[in-house]
Predict the structure.
Amino acid sequence: MSLPLEVTDALKHLGANVRLARVRRQMSQTELALASKMTPKTLYGLESGNPGVSISKVLSALWALGLLTDASALANPDHDEHGKTLERARSPQRVRGPDPNENDF
């Protein structure tokens, strides 16, 4: 089963961003791989946009580069406008107040 084009493009873009961050820090692939607790082959796959690289390896590389805080924006529910719209559509339109005829002893 192949991935949607948008997903493969996003993986390649992420890999290019990791590579650029590594190069800006003047780190070799071996240095970043060691700091990220992965093999240089896995790091090469990440930088190439290989979809087989696990999310834990991606986050490890971001951590080693000091970019892990940027990952908190991934799937942030505060930015999920479509999900918020669906949630509002399912919520009750009005809430009933207490029944004035009910005697609560």
DSSP finds five helices and no strands in the chain. Helices lie at 5-24, 29-35, 40-48, 55-64, 81-90.
